[in-house]
Amino acid sequence: MNTALASGAICEVAPGVRRLVAPNAGMMTGPGTNTYVLGIRDVAVIDPGPATDSHVDAIVDAAGLALRWVLVTHTHPDHSPAATLLARRTGAALLGRPAPAGPHQDETFHPDRVLADGDVLSVGEFSLDVIHTPGHASNHLCFLHSQLKWLFTGDHIIDGSTVVIDPPDGNMADYLQSLERLKGFEIAAIAPGHGDIIRAPHAAIDWIISHRLEREDKVAAAVAAFADLTTRELVGRVYSDVDTALYGIAERSLLAHLEKLEHEGRVLRTGERWRARHPGSNV
């Protein structure tokens, strides 16, 4: 076991960058949510995680009185609920994007400043470029450390697994476009929201895109071979390489793939059932 990724662990992963692992290990979170503490004199925290008192205490101990910003990549319940608690205790400003409508969102997060793509957050020690990366969540942001060229990716890219794309807020087309866009940035390493530092960032991005497109091909082939099936009926044919215990989660990403194919005119939906669309026809 990597003790640096154990629940409650704190370590310096780069000069001026410390990582705290929240005590929320699980099937969807791996070792736990990574909270990053940047800077010494002026401190920013990225993704304070769940509203767990012991984790908030650890963040306050690590950041001290210099905490200036609390940054949130997105408002899923394992990433942002501690933000409000942290701001109340320290007076730090909350920065990110408001929670979209729908389930599995942290409605307690109300940013003092709404961040937009292209914004730059700068203090004497470091600066962060804000990159809007919708897909896993419509309000998802990544933060590029200008000095280190490290990209803090929240759930856009994680270590050791792919992320769930869960409609309606999750969007597969947006996700792939956001990944493609990141290939245009100079990135030395990825600091993900779950798992360890990724030292070959562009290879990781290429692998995720390739994996998603391979899965899309399986979806299209399954719909062509087995018309008028529901996602529940399709999931075992598309995700035969996945543990059946994960089929409920996989079904959400399957739906995201189908919605992308539907938008491209490659499949048709009738109620809850899906079929291939023949070229040049409406059936």
Which helices and strands occur, and which strands form pairs?
Blueprint lengths: L9 E5 L2 E5 L12 E5 L4 E4 L6 H11 L3 E5 L10 H9 L2 E4 L16 E2 L5 E3 L4 E6 L8 E5 L4 E5 L17 H11 L6 E4 L8 H25 L5 H8 L8 H17 L3 E4 L2 E4 L7
Parallel strand pairs: 4-5, 5-6, 6-7, 11-12
Antiparallel strand pairs: 1-2, 2-3, 3-4, 8-9, 9-10, 10-11, 13-14
Helix pairs in contact: 1-2, 3-4, 4-6, 5-6
3D architecture notes:
It is built from 6 helices and 14 strands. It has 283 residues and is α/β, with parallel strands linked by helices. It has 2 domains: 197 residues, Metallo-beta-lactamase, Chain A (4-Layer Sandwich), CATH 3.60.15.10; 67 residues, Arc Repressor Mutant, subunit A. A 7-stranded mixed β-sheet has the order 1-2-3-4-5-6-7, covered by helices on one side. The chain has a 5-stranded mixed β-sheet with strand order 8-9-10-11-12, with no helix packed on it. Helix 4 packs across helix 6. The N and C termini lie far apart (53 Å).
